């Protein structure tokens, strides 16, 4: 409850900050805009965003660590937008990764898409990537954007995700119970 309230506030702050263009003035190196990442807790949104835009050595999830964030639900194999805004120019590949075992260990993050050299220009980098086909439907499903630039900096953003065929279990439960009541009407 508290977590979703906090992440709601932070999301609002993130969107608001982006809209009024503060990020450009305060951010150091770049920030992931989509999928919406975890962000550290803090009352000053400008400062939070400035902090997470910096390079980090905090593996696996950067400064945000285990902080709350929204849960984004995807369908297996769906094409999703990745958007990363850069205020520096460096080489090095950007990777999309997925952990099915939470965000405690770096080794649990496996690359499912290499976005190639994504940092050669300033401004918005966008790409559509395919979500893995295997479902993942629990608290341990974490998607990560990782950029290791060519001057030794690491950028790490974790997003809480679910990958599942049906939007929620209520939907499939409802379908089952409708089927059951049809059957019981027949009998
Ligand atoms: C994106 O990056 C550009 C170029 O560095 C910067 O001018 C702009 O303010 C940034 N915008 C956002 C929304 O981060
Ligand atoms: C941002 O980072 C600075 C320097 O490490 C720290 O003092 C400050 O508390 C951080 N602010 C937030 C909101 O995380
Ligand atoms: C938030 O942090 C920024 C950057 O450190 C600072 O300029 C601004 O005054 C702070 N805002 C508030 C309300 O504390």
TrEMBL record:
Domain of life: Eukaryota
Record's signal peptide: 1-28
Gene3D superfamilies the UniProt entry points to: 2.70.50.70
The protein, known as: Chitin-binding type-4 domain-containing protein
Record keywords: Signal
């Amino acid at each position: 409850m508290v977590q979703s309230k906090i992440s709601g506030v932070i999301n609002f702050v993130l969107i608001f900050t982006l809209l009024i263009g503060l990020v450009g003035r305060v951010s150091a190196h770049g920030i992931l805009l989509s999928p919406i990442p975890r962000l550290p807790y803090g009352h000053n949104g400008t400062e939070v965003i400035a902090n997470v835009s910096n390079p980090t050595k905090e593996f696996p999830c950067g400064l945000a660590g285990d902080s709350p964030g929204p849960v984004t639900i995807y369908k297996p194999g769906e094409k999703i937008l990745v958007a990363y805004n850069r205020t520096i120019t460096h080489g090095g590949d950007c990777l999309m990764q997925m952990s099915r075992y939470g965000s405690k260990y770096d080794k649990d993050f496996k690359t499912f898409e290499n976005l190639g050299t994504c940092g050669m220009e300033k401004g918005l980098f966008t790409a559509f990537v395919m979500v893995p086909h295997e479902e993942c439907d629990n608290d341990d499903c974490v998607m990560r954007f990782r950029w290791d630039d060519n001057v030794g900096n690491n950028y790490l953003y974790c997003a809480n995700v679910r990958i599942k065929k049906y939007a929620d279990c209520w939907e499939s439960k409802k379908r089952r119970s409708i089927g059951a009541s049809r059957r019981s009407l027949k009998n």
